[in-house]
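Thread: Outer membrane protein transport protein, structure

OP (GT): Posting the sequence first so everyone is looking at the same thing. Length is 403 residues per the record. Can we get the structure tokens written out before standup tomorrow? I want them in the notebook alongside the other entries.
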Amino acid sequence: MSATAGGFQSGPQSARLLGLGGASTAYTRDIAVMYYNPGAIGHLDSLIHVSVGGMGTARLSSFVGTDSRRQTRQELEPQPSGYLYAAARVAPKVSIGLSVNQPFGYKTTWPSDWEGRSVVQESRLSTVYVQPTVAYQINDNFSVGAGFIYAYGDLQQQRALGQYDDRSAQARFEGSGRGYGANIGLYGRTADDLSFGISYRTPVTLKVDNGQAAYSGVLERDAALYPASMGFRTDIELPSTLSVGLADRMTKNLLVTFDFNLTSWSRYDSLNFEMDNATRVTAGRRYEDAMAFRVGAEYTATPILTVRAGVSYDETPVRDEYINADLPDANLLGGSLGLTLAIKPNLLLDMGYSYSQGGERRARVNISRDVVSSIDGSYRTAVHTAAVGLSYSFGGRATRAGQ
């Protein structure tokens, strides 16, 4: 139930890969590798693969004000998430597939009367990526793949208008947008026990042209500046990701995976709402590019049971001077567990769970940086992720829990 990476990358993208800590670029035992490395589906064993599942997201943050010394906890509102993958070998060397998942998103809800209510009361972003994919197996050791990305996202924000004593004075912004991108990858193996993967997912810009702003509780003299309803437009910049991965079968039953990810969060410089009355509502972000390191292990205990564990470290892209209650992110150190049960030889039940803990982040108000909405205080964040899924394969060799 939570974000599995720095910034607002979300999950789960796969119950099985969640148990590995997300180290999946060179992992070909799950069709969800299509999202992480489209080249890898060229080496899937069976003719047909289908995987479906999900659960949700919950990020738990608390805030202690510098002056008030009062602690406020985020309200617990999990954000549902799901995924669907399907692939088939249509020729001896050609495979095609389709993935539908939710790679970016967050949901932040603070009490309506908390001391930072003029910064944010509620904020939510959800996205859906639809990726048709084709892969070509060059030879027994190498395959390449590419996918086209159609992205849809919707945004919602609500905050109090702090210039008024009336706490019912509020601003609410809602909108949705679409964007396009691509995903390319290479999978290779140097021996039966060692494989590698390299992939690049391009950035995506969600263009929100139909946004609606609504103001309530505004004094009559300010009605022209804050009308009851007004349109706006904005662009939401989603980052690219470069991934490099290794997978090593260390023994007959033990597989170890490693991933390195570099995400171009620096694209997310600000969030600007261009209002219909020619005004602009600006929120500075100034994110930085961030790295992530992931290690996972998978052990085939019996023909029907496979267990997994993983660790991860995700850098936060949020600079110290831009910490805010919208997404009080931090460097995250996480651990994960998972298992697969073979209900039938070709029907698998996957389960995964991860927990990540962030360090304390201190926010300070700087009046010279007026595009940053924040209040003085300290944030702490913990993240939980859980997922359940089913995987089905047909054709090729029989599939066990560890294959």
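GT: Both are above now. Quick notes for whoever picks this up: The CA atoms of residues 206 and 329 lie 22 Å apart. The first strand starts at residue 48 and ends at 65.
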